[in-house]
């Protein structure tokens, strides 16, 4: 299947899912002249709400670069990204910063928690950034940690938690402010398989919602079945898109 | 619970303040290191500055100590208080003839050699020791220029023959083995003096003293009214200590000996010119500056108010001695070392936390707030370092302070400001690299391994 040619077609969402993220023609080059690396060579891809979209592919194919553009922390050279109809590629840097604070959740491979803060305080950071008073924010974060099975560890610092626990704190932090888009880069890569499955299942359970897009970058083919839509990337392109059972589906979604 | 309303971005302080401080203090070792680096620089600047200022004040103390006069009249080539250029005594008459003068009195100020005699208790032989002293001769009648405070004895005793008054530190310097402990309270000091008196009155002076090597010969001459009992010789004239005063410490830290003008002339070798200064009081209602101008015009001498003379003296030291340069060098070194240490440590602190800054940036903390965090961290360590440094330097100064101390230490309030300014500059320089680093930081680094 040629994803580049598949514009809008026959296989729509089927289950009445909304279009969440529309990525079209994104190009990104790093460096100049002979050193130049074309990380993204025109990526077009639609992500629906209420499902987990996975981005897989060999190392260096551009996955991280793509989600950085989608999350608004990296400027693309060409193309557009819109999230629930709002074009983020046309925003100023300031507007993007504000957009991220309100609408984007991040989960990183290396957790990136603040070591000086407790689990609950870490999870509360996005609310603090938005201006929620500290006590209120930490209380909300503690409740969410409870849902993630960390009710007893809210006062622990990151270095007192296992990798899986830290990643669960990171998930709480990514969801506490109810973002419109959650981007996860290799969330299970630093975890053993079992813990990774637990983390992925928690993401599915807690993050999937009809007003949110969830994009998970992964190498880990054992978790592919937990994706509703798996995009295979290679050399700056989306090569193919399959559903959770491996059936090809088009790169774009028809808007009803 | 969803508070994601844009107008709620108002609490700048929550994220900037609270998280920044948590981050900073979370790394205890580094935090303490930076604070101590800054405290060191701040203390060094403070301490050196205070000592320098203290020395300057000490130099000028002799001017301030002489109260009661409005003007100092001197040879026009005098540059500072110790730069005595003696005048002929007939100049006193010239000054007295100037309009608007209530009184004009002579002052001798110079160096004399005091010969002190002791009995060596082990050999029983007489030992002579010569010490340089600062000799001040006050007008015989009025005693204008008397020490600001008498420790024991009465200034009027200077009217008695052979009498002199020595400052307390000087007395200990001249008679080091008499157990006159300067850390003692005035009461203790006085009772030591009294005990010495009693012992000498009870027994002949040659009696061996078990705990002292050298016994001053003059002990035992004290009268009822003045308990002081030391004597010496200057220019082959006997001088008896009849009182102890508290003189401000001088730059040279020699003993200061007060006596009358005419006796002072006997205590030094005969010279044609022995008038060091003329002290002048102007008539009520007269402007001292006008009188000073008239003195200059009529006598050709220089006439300065106390403040002018202090200024002249300080200017001289600033301009013509290496002392300020030495102190400045230390201060500048402290500044540079402080900047280097604190800057290095602060920058490495920022680098260590760069991923945290990156994550915060990705999560929507803008450059303004990120820079605010770094500056707040710098300000906090600066504030603590300054406080500790100033506190430390002050404690050092207090521990070594007092009239009696050899250490000149005076913390002028401008010095506090100067030190604060220096600390602010150090912190600004130290955080500059860090600020640049976080401004240029790409939030996309958070996805990199
Ligand atoms: N900041 C950068 N400067 C220069 N080149 C970069 C930069 N970021 C990425 N690249 C290059 O762009 C290409 C895509 O990188 P990217 O990190 O997106 O790959 P990836 O698919 O996430 O790989 P991995 O699975 O190893 O994480 C790579 O060739 C990489 O070297
Ligand atoms: Mg990657």
CATH superfamily of chain A: P-loop containing nucleotide triphosphate hydrolases
Helix count of chain A equals 6
**Spans of chain A with pLDDT under 50 lasting ≥5 residues?**
1-14
Q: Encode the helix/strand succession of chain B as letters.
A: HHEHEEEEHHEEEEHEHEHHHHH
Class based on secondary structure composition and strand pairing of chain B? alpha+beta
What's the SSE pattern of chain A?
A: EEEHEEHEHHHEHEEE
Provide the residue-averaged pLDDT of chain B.
81
Q: Globular, elongated, flat, extended or rod-shaped: what is the shape of chain A? A: globular
Structure description:
The complex is a heterodimer of chains A (256) and B (449). In chain A, α3 crosses α4 (134-147), α3 (119-130) packs parallel to α5 (163-175) and α5 (163-175) packs parallel to α6. Chain A has one domain (18-243): P-loop containing nucleotide triphosphate hydrolases (Rossmann fold). With 256 residues, chain A is α/β, with parallel strands linked by helices. Chain A has helices at residues 63-70, 93-103, 119-130, 134-147, 163-175, 193-207, and strands at 19-30, 37-48, 52-56, 78-83, 86-87, 104-107, 181-185, 213-217, 229-234, 237-243. The longest helix of chain A has 15 residues, at 193-207. Chain B has two domains: 6-58 and 322-447, no CATH class; 88-300, no CATH class. Chain B contains twelve helices and eleven strands. In chain B, strands 2-3-9-5-8-7 form a six-stranded mixed beta barrel. In chain B, a hairpin with a 2-residue loop joins β7 and β8 (237-246). Chain B starts with 11 loop residues before the first helix and ends in a 9-residue tail after the last helix. Chain A binds chain B through residues 64, 67-68, 71, 73-74, 94, 97-102, 104, 106, 108-110, 112, 114-117, 121, 125-134, 136, 140, 177-178, 185, and chain B through 1-4, 6, 8-11, 14-15, 18-19, 22-23, 25-27, 355-356, 358-366, 442-444, 446-449. The complex binds adenosine-5'-triphosphate (ATP) and magnesium ion. Adenosine-5'-triphosphate (ATP) binds next to β2 and α1 of chain A.
């Amino acid at each position: 299947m040629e994803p580049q040619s598949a514009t809008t077609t026959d296989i729509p969402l089927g289950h009445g899912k909304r279009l969440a993220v529309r990525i079209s023609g994104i190009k990104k080059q790093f460096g100049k002249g002979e050193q130049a690396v074309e990380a993204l060579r025109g990526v077009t891809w639609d992500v629906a709400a209420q499902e987990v979209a996975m981005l897989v592919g060999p190392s260096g194919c551009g996955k991280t670069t793509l989600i950085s553009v989608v999350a608004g922390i990296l400027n693309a050279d060409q193309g557009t990204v819109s999230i629930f109809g709002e074009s983020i590629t046309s925003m100023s840097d300031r507007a993007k910063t504000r957009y991220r604070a309100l609408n984007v959740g991040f989960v990183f491979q290396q957790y990136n928690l603040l070591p000086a803060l407790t689990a609950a305080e870490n999870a509360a950071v996005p609310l603090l950034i938005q201006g929620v008073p500290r006590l209120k924010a930490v209380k909300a974060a503690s409740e969410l940690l409870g849902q993630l099975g960390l009710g007893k560890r809210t006062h622990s610092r990151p270095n007192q938690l296992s990798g899986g626990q830290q990643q669960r704190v990171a998930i709480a932090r990514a969801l506490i402010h109810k973002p419109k888009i959650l981007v996860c880069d290799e969330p299970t890569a630093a975890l053993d398989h079992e813990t990774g499955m637990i983390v992925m299942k928690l993401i599915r359970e807690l993050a999937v919602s009809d007003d949110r897009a969830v994009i998970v970058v992964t190498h880990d083919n054992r978790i592919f079945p937990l994706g509703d839509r798996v995009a295979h990337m290679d050399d700056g392109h989306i090569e193919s898109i399959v559903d959770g059972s491996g059936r090809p589906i088009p790169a774009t979604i028809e808007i009803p | 619970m969803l508070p994601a309303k844009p107008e709620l971005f108002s609490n700048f302080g929550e994220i900037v303040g609270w998280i920044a401080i948590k981050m900073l203090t979370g790394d205890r070792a580094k935090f303490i290191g930076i604070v101590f680096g800054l405290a060191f620089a701040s203390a060094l600047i403070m301490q050196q500055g205070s000592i320098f200022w203290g020395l300057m004040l000490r130099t000028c103390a002799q001017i301030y100590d002489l109260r009661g006069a409005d003007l100092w009249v001197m040879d026009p080539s005098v540059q500072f208080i110790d730069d005595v250029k003696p005048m002929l005594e007939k100049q006193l008459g010239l000054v007295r003839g100037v309009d608007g003068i209530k009184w004009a009195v002579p002052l001798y100020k110079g160096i004399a050699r005091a010969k002190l005699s002791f009995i060596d208790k082990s050999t029983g032989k007489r030992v002579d020791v010569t010490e340089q002293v600062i000799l001040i001769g006050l007008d015989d009648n009025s005693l204008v220029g008397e020490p600001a405070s008498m420790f024991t004895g009465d200034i009027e005793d200077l009217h008695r023959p052979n009498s002199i008054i020595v400052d307390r530190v000087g007395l200990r310097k001249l008679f080091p083995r008499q157990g006159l402990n300067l850390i003692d309270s005035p009461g203790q000091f006085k009772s030591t003096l009294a005990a010495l008196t009693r012992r000498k009155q009870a027994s002949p002076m040659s009696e061996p003293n078990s705990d002292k090597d050298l016994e001053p010969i003059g002990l035992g001459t004290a009268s009822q009214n003045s308990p002081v009992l030391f004597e010496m010789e200057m220019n082959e004239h006997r001088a008896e200590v009849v009182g102890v005063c508290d003189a401000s410490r001088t730059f040279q830290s020699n003993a200061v000996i007060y006596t009358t003008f005419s006796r002072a002339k006997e205590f030094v070798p005969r010279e044609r010119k022995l008038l060091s200064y003329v002290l002048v009081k102007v008539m009520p209602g007269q402007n001292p500056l006008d009188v000073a101008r008239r003195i200059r015009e009529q006598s050709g001498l220089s006439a300065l108010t106390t403040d002018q003379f202090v200024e002249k003296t300080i200017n001289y030291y600033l301009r013509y001695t290496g002392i300020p340069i030495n102190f400045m060098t230390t201060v500048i070194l402290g500044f540079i070392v402080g900047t280097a240490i604190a800057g290095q440590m602060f920058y490495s602190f920022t680098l260590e936390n760069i991923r945290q800054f990156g994550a915060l940036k990705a999560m929507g903390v803008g450059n303004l707030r990120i820079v605010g965090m770094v500056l707040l961290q710098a300000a906090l360590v600066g504030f603590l370092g300054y406080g500790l440094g100033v506190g430390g330097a002050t404690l050092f100064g207090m521990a070594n302070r007092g009239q009696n101390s050899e250490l000149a230490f005076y913390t002028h309030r401008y010095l506090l400001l100067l030190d604060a300014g220096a600390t602010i500059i150090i912190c600004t320089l130290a955080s500059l690299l860090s600020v640049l680093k976080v401004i240029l930081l790409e939030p996309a680094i958070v996805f990199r391994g």
